[in-house]
Design goal:
Layout: E1 3-8, E2 11-16, H1 25-36, H2 45-57, E3 62-71, E4 74-84, E5 105-113, H3 121-135, E6 140-145, H4 148-157, E7 159-167, E8 174-183
């Protein structure tokens, strides 16, 4: 069951603890957009997201919150947040260690907005997600991103605390990324 956390114009920003396949529509939309625009980078976000949901869902005590952005019945955004039994070594390969107790942090695993829903990302992150997790007593949000167009937004909200390079699915490309820490204040 989805709970509406905020509304902006015709967009509804919701949260659910139960995964539904329709939540993946924004990733499929972005994958189609990437293919149609000739920007294929040998990395299938939809596959990797499904794998993360399965792996994290099998970890006892790790909670996943599925945040969605809907306009009408169309799902145009997905943000997946994890908290609870977090693996303390999740970013260790990048030399990053958490500065807060693990029960006070939230991992921002995925953030995708369909082309038709773009222009809502800053509002969603800054005015919905950050205050919601701050209100639940979390002190920081951590996330990795290999999407350079989003780096300036993440930098405005927090700080880049590290970098990493991953290979594309078939090892054809290097995917440089950054790790960010966003402080949460209630």
């Amino acid at each position: 069951m989805e709970t509406v956390l905020a509304t902006r114009g015709s967009a509804h920003f919701c949260v659910s603890r139960e995964f539904q396949g329709i939540f993946l529509c924004p990733l499929a939309d972005n994958l189609k957009d990437k293919l149609a625009g000739g920007a294929w980078d040998d990395y299938n976000e939809l596959y990797h997201c499904c794998r993360l949901i399965h792996e994290y869902g099998a970890r006892p005590g790790l909670l996943m919150d599925f945040h969605t952005m809907r306009i009408g019945q169309e799902h145009l955004g997905l943000a997946i947040m994890s908290h609870g039994n977090i693996d303390p070594d999740i970013y260790a390969a990048s030399g990053i260690h958490f500065s807060e107790p693990l029960d006070r942090i939230v991992l921002f695993n995925y953030f995708h907005i369909s082309p038709a829903g773009r222009g809502n990302g800053t509002f969603w992150l800054d005015k919905v997600l950050i205050p919601w997790y701050a209100g639940q007593g979390f002190s920081a949000m951590y996330f990795k991103s290999s999407h350079p167009k989003a780096f300036s937004l993440y930098q405005r909200l927090g700080a880049c605390i590290g970098g990493y390079t991953a290979k594309s699915d078939n090892g054809l490309h290097d995917r440089p990324g950054r790790i960010f820490r966003v402080p949460l204040h209630g």
